[in-house]
């Protein structure tokens, strides 16, 4: 094998390796960008986030009002029920 054949084969091998690595590099960059920019479309705009906060606060206020206005539970445990019957009808 002469020097020129050796250098040619070396360059062929290195170009194959470069192409292979270039593909891997491209795939790695694509995967990185995909992960890095994954949620950008899902991020709420300022207006949408304010609306969501307002809706959440309305829901929270509504639940609090329902809890405050709700009557106390009338269900009794069997022991308390028995005691109540004894006190009432004895």
What report would you give on this structure?
This protein has 90 residues and is an all-alpha fold. It has two domains: 1-38; 43-70. The protein is 78% helix and 0% strand. The protein contains three helices and no strands. The radius of gyration is 37 Å and the shape is elongated.
Q: Would you list the SSEs in sequence order as H and E?
A: HHH
Average pLDDT figure: 69
Distance between the termini: 117 Å
Inertia-based shape: elongated
How many strand segments?
0
Q: How many structural domains are formed by the residues?
A: 2
Query: Into which percentage range does the β-strand content fall?
Result: under 5%
Structural class: mainly alpha
Number of continuous helical runs = 3
Reported for the largest beta sheet, the result is: none
Helix content: over 70%
Low-pLDDT runs of 5+ residues are none
Radius of gyration: 37 Å
